[in-house]
Structures are given as C-alpha cells and as structure tokens.
Amino acid sequence: MTQTAAIFLSAYRELSARRLFWLALVINVLVVALFASLGINEQGIGFLGWTFDSPFYNTTTTSPETFYKSLFVALGVDWWLGLIATLLALVTTCGIIPDLVAPGSIDLLLAKPIGRARLFLTKYATGLLFAALQVSVFSLASFAAIGLRGGVWEWGLFLAVPIVTFFYSLLYCICALVGMLTKSSVASLILTLLAWTVIFSVNLSESIVVAGRIANSLETAAIEKELAAGVTKDGSEPLQEDDIDALRTDLQKAKDNRTNWDRAYFWFHGIKSFVPKTGDTLELLDRWLLASASMPTRDPDSERGPQRAFGPRRVKRGEYERALKDEERSRSIVWVLGTSAAFEAGILLLATVVFVRRDY
Amino acid sequence: MTNGSTAGVLAVDVDGVRKTYGRRIRALQGVALHVAPGEIFGLLGPNGAGKSTLVKVLMTLVRADEAHGSVLGHPVGSSAALEGIGYLPEHHRFPAFLTGRQAVEFSGAMSKVDRPTRKRRAAHLLDRVGLGSWMDRKLGSYSKGMKQRAGLAAALVNDPQLVVLDEPTDGVDPVGRREIRDLLVEMRAEGRTVLLNSHLLSEVEGVCDRVGILVQGRLAAQGTIDELTASSRRYEIVIAGEAPSWCDAETRIESVPAGTLQSVGIAGAGTKLMFLGLDAPGAQPLLDRLRAEGRTVVSVHTVRESLEDLFLRAVTDPSTGLILKPGAAR
C-alpha cells in the first residue's frame, strides 16, 4: 500500500508539474461556464441576455433540468471529454510508460521490493489519473452549474467519472502497449491516434449497417402493411393494379436487400465485438442520465428534417429515429462494457508480459 | 542499520551466473562472486566485461539464464533480498519534477519504509551528503554531482545491509569524490557491505577491502589487493656503482633462486637490484654479500604491483601478451 500510494503521489506531482494539466483544468471550467451562461425560457434559448427563439427548445417542451443535462451529455461529455479533453490527456500521459522503461529510471524502480506486474499496472493506473481528475473537476463544476441554473442537484452526473475514465482507458491501454514496445512517447501517441481512428471507423461502419438494417426492416413492414390495407399510403383511395405491382416489386427488392444487410451486420457486428466500444460506452451516460429526465423526443409523425442515409422512404423520420434510439439503448451493458474490458485486459496482459520478461 | 538475521552469512554468495544476450553475446559465463558482510568489494573490469550485467542480475533488472546462491541470505532477486539493498545505478534518472527530499522519500516508500522514518532519514541523509540547503529544490536544478549525492542518499534511505553503487563518483568533483570515499568508509564502519562498481582504479584501491576483476564475462581474479599482488612483491635494493658480476645466472649466489634476481642500471645513480617474490629472511644473504664486497647500499624497500598493474595483467592474454579485446565474449 505504501508503494502504491507513493507511485500515485509521484504521478500526481508529475502531472501537476506539467502546464498542460493546468491548462486542461482551466478549459474544463471554461466549458462549464459556457454552458452555465446558456439558459432556457418560454421563447427559446438565452445566452448572456440575448434570447434565440426556438419552437423545439423552450420551457414548454423542455425543463431546465433536461436542458442542462442534455448540454452536459452532448456538449460536455461527447465533444469536450470524449474528444478534445481525451486528446489533451493522451498528449499529457503518453510519456508515462516510455519514461518508466527509460534507462536510469527503470533501474531505480525494479531494484525495489515490488513485483514487476504490479509496478507496471500501477503505473498504468496513474496514467488514468489525469483523465479521472479532469472528469471529476468537470463533473463537479457541471453539478454546481446545473444545480444553480437548473435548480436540480443531479448526483448522476458523477457517473461521468467512471464512464469517461473507462472510455479513456480503452485508448490508453493501446498507448501503454506501444510505449512499452517502442519506448517512444511520440510513437505511442501517433499509433494510439491511429488505433482510435480505426476503432471509430469500425464503430461508425457498424452504426451505418445497423441503421440500414432497421430502415430495411421498417420499409418492408410499411410495404406489407400498405399491401394488406389495400389503400394508398395516405388512405385516400384504393390501390390500383399498377400500384400493387410496384409495391410488390419494392417489397421483393427490400427482401433481397435484407439478405445483404444481414450479411453486413454479421461481419461488422462481429468485428465490433472484438474492438472497444468507445461510442457505446459514452452513450451509456446519455442512456442513464437522460432516460430518467423528461427528454423531448421527436414526434413519431414528424417528417421535418432531411431523411438519413439509407433511411426508409415509406416511414416517417420521427418513427425511424425512435427505432434507432431504441436499438441503441437496447444494447446490453454487459456486451458494451464486457467486450471492451476484455479488449483492454488483452492489451494490458500483452504489455505486462513484455514488461515482466524484458531485460533492462 | 537494519538488523537482519543474516549474521555470518555472505552478503553476496552467487555461483554459476550465466547470461547470454540473444544467442551470441555471452555477457556472463559462470561467474562466482562472494562478498563478505561488512566489507567494501570493488568490481573491476574493462568496458563490456559484464560488470553491469552482473550487478543488474543481482538487482533483478536482468534475468540470468542461470544463477545459484543468495543475496543477504535470500534467493537472488527475491523481494526479501531487495528490501535489504540500497542501489545507485549508473546514469540514474530521478524525476526532475521532484525535490531532493521528495526523491529520497519516494525511494524510501518504494522500499517499504514507513512515512515518519523515511521523512526523518531523508532530511538526515541529504544533510549528510551535503545537500542540506538544497533538499527542497527540484532535482532538475541540480548539477550532475549533486544528483549523484542525492542518489546516494536515496540508496541509503532504507538503511540497507548491502549497498550496491555503480560508478558513484561519476560527474563528481575531486572534493566530492573525497567526501563520497569517506562516506563509503563510514558505511563500512556502520557494518554495511558495499559492492562498488567503478572504473577509477585509484578510488577502488583506496577504499576496497577486496576486488574482483571481470574479463569477458569471467571473473579473472578475486581477493584482497595484497593477495592478488603477492606474486609480484619484490625487494628493490639500490646500490652505488655497477651491478655485481654474480647477478647473472651463471655466477649467482646459492640462496637466490634462478630467475628471481634482476639488475637495472640507474643513470648516474648506481644500480637497482630487484629480488622477485623474496621474503625478508631470504634477502639477508644478498645484503650480507653486498656488504662483504664493500658495496654501498643506498636504499632497501619492498615493492608490489599497483592495482592498475594488476588490472592490466588480468586483461592481458598471457599467451600473446596482447590486451584482450574489450566487450563480452561472442
């Protein structure tokens, strides 16, 4: 325990000696100050005395509590913590493992009565300290801002600390492995960013396939419903022979496409099972934090806005988006966190074995 | 000093230490090293002879292919052994963001020293190595010599029974070197064992009780400097005038074995007679003969090899007379 505490204390001293650490903390507070300066009223959204009229976001559709929680998740977590702060954290912490194994530095630590695996994993954990501290400060500031501006003291905001730290650890384990193998901070940063891009691409591809598959499913159901009803989509007149033929052709096409979507889903979902679910992990916060709030959802009959790529032509946009959201939220937490944790454990195991077996 | 239950046990007692890097570089080829408790042992050898590898094997930085024996009575590389060791590596790199005090306290914490004790020892040890007024400044602002002193303090913070120092005076000025040598002697007086790895032969000769010379991964010699230089011990007798005719092998005196007597002329100052490997009683017939012949004996003194001579002899191939190639055996 003495050794672990000493390593963490030293890591904190190292982080606090870096300007980037303090810069990131200041930006954290500024980001929270920015969304605390936003307000919601009967007309729309207010910002420093100005009001921007919005028929969708106002106090008749959205409570201040929900408004601020949405800001916290969409602006704070998805953009700030999930992207910019993560980049800053990677830049700050990418040198921890290369510094650990640098000649002259590793000698001082391995000569102490501490197991190699424990030393490596503790050092790895200190790399997560940066992310955890930044998210804690951000969550605390957001908690105060939402409490003061929205009138709700939402303890659930602090779920961001474990979730975002776990999200960060999915990338940082790659950084640690590359740092271990190459002993180079620059190489570990670049290869981690590259890996992140690959992970993002896999996740995005799978999302597109899932969206296409749902659209296909809704489209098929809509055609079958129209054929069964025997009237046009608006219900104004009975279907003509030509209309029925066209519908049957579309139905056949949709069924043919179904096979393609299923095959694509099998492969992309399979591949995704082996990579960390970075997006789905952050989505958990959205799921848990906003599910309880009276979050406004698009009217199922709404047709506003452009249709998404691969979107169904015979289904209203609101219904399609609901189906997508339902699919997103129906994903098992065990699958999201479990497979991601398995990936991280695998990478860490490899890095630990290299660290333990290497001569210095 | 930590009072372990290792009284009478060799501080370092290892045999058959082998290490091959890759498949070709045989860094250690069955080294046996025995260091008694309470002594200062100097580990010598040319570059690449395997000194650092041997130290790293003892400190668990390098995994030996084969190693038998113990350190402080515990298996080599065990946690129990490491708890009793203080180590200062060559080219160490303490984190620049720590102050001297924080670095020493960190070292203590990693050696499982409790908080009050390590705080007290850090202040005391930094004062002892001359960094009393610098202990709260960041190591990044220290000179190389100051970092070396801080490293020594860090190596002692766990009150070790065995102190392993790799080039401890590297980068230290002459005054600092003297202070570090004094510190080594103090450590010995406190009952600690010191394993000193150094290139500076004069430094080793000045403080070490015993030395070991590693050459191409093998221990070429191990013992006290007296033991190792015994075969080279000789008497040098300077006489006025030319060398006596009986100095050559054919006319030698009976009590002086063949090949042990040499004469060297000293320009304008007489002749130097050297009797190799003779003890004091053995030299008496020679002195009697010189006096009987009425020769003036200017001086008589014993001479032995310096550590440098011994070192050079150890690294010289006896069959060719050439210096062995530096580096590990391939």
What shape does the CA trace of chain A take?
flat
Overall spatial form of chain B: elongated
**Which sheet architecture does the biggest sheet of chain A show?**
3 strands, antiparallel
Helix content of chain B: 25-40%
- What is the tally of helical segments of chain B? 10
Count of DSSP H/I helices of chain A: 12
Distance between the termini of chain B: 42 Å
List low-confidence stretches of chain A: none
Strand order of the largest sheet of chain B: 6-7-8-3-9-10
Judging by the overall fold, what is the CATH architecture of the largest domain in chain B? Answer: 3-Layer(aba) Sandwich
The secondary structure category of chain B is alpha/beta
Number of domains of chain B: 2
Notes on the protein architecture:
The complex is a heterodimer of chains A (360) and B (330). Chain A is mainly α. Chain A folds into two domains: 2-184 and 343-357, no CATH class; 204-330, no CATH class. Chain A is built from twelve helices and three strands; from the N terminus they run H-H-E-E-E-H-H-H-H-H-H-H-H-H-H. In chain A, strands 1-2-3 form a three-stranded antiparallel beta sheet. In chain A, strand 2 (44-47) and strand 3 form a beta hairpin. The model of chain A has no long low-confidence stretch (mean pLDDT 86). Chain B is of the alpha/beta class and 330 residues long. Chain B folds into two domains: 12-228, 3-Layer(aba) Sandwich (Rossmann fold), CATH 3.40.50.300; 234-303, Alpha-Beta Plaits (2-Layer Sandwich). In chain B, 30% of the residues lie in helices and 26% in strands. Chain B is built from ten helices and 14 strands. Chain B has helices at 51-58, 79-83, 100-110, 115-128, 144-156, 174-189, 201-207, 225-229, 280-292, 307-314, and strands at 12-21, 25-35, 40-44, 66-71, 74-75, 85-88, 162-166, 193-197, 210-215, 218-224, 234-239, 261-266, 270-276, 297-303. In chain B, strands 6-7-8-3-9-10 form a six-stranded mixed beta sheet, with helices on both faces. In chain B, strand 1 (12-21) and strand 2 (25-35) form a beta hairpin. The model of chain B has no long low-confidence stretch (mean pLDDT 85). The interface between A and B is medium-sized, with 27 and 32 residues.
